[in-house]
Design a protein that fits this description.
The chain is mainly alpha-helical. Helices cover 75% and strands 0% of the residues. It contains 15 helices and no strands. Helix 4 (74-96) packs parallel to helix 7 (144-163) and helix 5 packs parallel to helix 15 (306-334). The protein is globular, with a radius of gyration of 19 Å.
Length: 335
């Protein structure tokens, strides 16, 4: 491993380490559950701890360090509009297919939410377009805390309560009900990354001096590894391998949305925003990243169908590594 790290660049070494952490964490969580060392119901608490303890400081530090210049606002706004539209389209299709609430929410979210962060999308952008590609990817991800905690959390809570048979005090279509669900989301401690991201943005725009201790002590890398261990380990706890084949049809449906509808929606929004060149290519690449880890976390946190979420997460990543990444590699090497 040391010899390999010496031959590769820092970005490549980090990617290999992160991939190893993901595989080991998922396998460790799965093995621990099978051996009776950990219980699957603990996954929700582990995921919550990861969001509060790792994702919250990461959200602040990442946005604080970004180089935000004029005109780049279009990238995160584009990303936000595209994923919301893709999610709504997925939820509409799920309703047309008469899926139950616990399955419909998973279907809709996993057709839109992608692995756009440091575990896949960020590395691919860096490998293909260098530091500028990575910068655009970071700008794109600025919208993620706001999309997750202001849109996904309230919608997931609604579908989760509907699946549990809870009757809302107000009709779901009324402003009072929407306001109540939104208020419950923003006061949830697991929404802390929303506020730390806003803090990072305020510090960035306010010209506050960037901290150096996080880079000197590799704090960001440590937080990422901690978050991946907790989050992927908790997914491993919930994976029931024998039950996954039963969900291949909805998983394939979500994969179709992820790899076909999502880039079409992104392309339409990007053209409407006047985005061209490398920023456009980065946004299109991020739109076809496999289903996001957070889509599985949300399924576990709000009582949605976690088996369907796990099946879709595994299927979309298998398609990405078997088809998309080899195609990108051939295109990159031929250019």
């Amino acid at each position: 491993m040391i010899l390999l790290a010496a031959q590769l660049g820092q970005a490549e070494t980090r990617f290999l380490v992160f991939m190893a952490v993901i595989v080991v964490a998922m396998a460790g969580g799965y093995t621990a559950r099978r051996a009776g060392l950990l219980r699957p119901e603990w996954a929700r608490w582990i995921m919550s701890a990861a969001i509060i303890g790792a994702d919250s400081p990461l959200a602040c530090l990442a946005i604080w360090h970004l180089d935000i210049t004029g005109g780049v606002w279009r990238v995160p706004v584009l990303g936000l509009v595209a994923v919301v539209l893709a999610s709504l389209a997925g939820l509409a299709i799920a309703r047309w297919r008469r899926l139950g609430p616990a399955e419909a929410a998973v279907f809709g979210f996993q057709g839109a939410m992608g692995n756009v962060g440091y575990t896949l999308g960020g590395f691919l952008c860096f490998a293909l377009w260098g530091i500028q590609g990575l910068a655009v990817e970071q700008l794109y991800c600025m919208m993620w805390p706001f999309f997750t905690f202001l849109f996904c959390f309230p919608v997931a809570r609604h579908y989760g309560e509907a699946a549990a048979g809870a009757r809302p005090a107000d009709r779901p279509s009324t402003p009072a009900y929407v306001a109540r669900m939104l208020a419950r989301s923003v006061t949830d401690l697991r929404s802390l990354p929303l506020y730390t991201a806003a803090l990072g943005l305020a510090l960035n725009l306010g010209g506050a001096a960037e901290p150096t201790v996080d880079r000197e002590w590799h704090l960001l890398d440590g937080l990422m590894i901690l978050g991946m261990c907790l989050q992927f380990g908790s997914i491993g706890l919930t994976v029931q391998a024998r039950r996954l084949p039963a969900f291949w049809k909805p998983a394939l449906g979500s994969a179709s949305l992820k790899f076909f509808l999502s880039p079409l929606v992104t392309a339409g929004v990007a053209l409407a925003f006047g985005l061209t060149g490398m920023p456009l290519y980065v946004c299109l690449l991020l739109s076809v990243m496999p289903s996001a880890l957070y889509s599985v976390l949300i399924a576990n946190l709000f009582g949605l169908n976690k088996d369907q979420a796990n099946a879709t997460f595994i299927l979309t990543h298998a398609i990405c590594f078997a088809v998309l990444i080899p195609v990108l590699a051939v295109w990159y090497l031929s250019g």
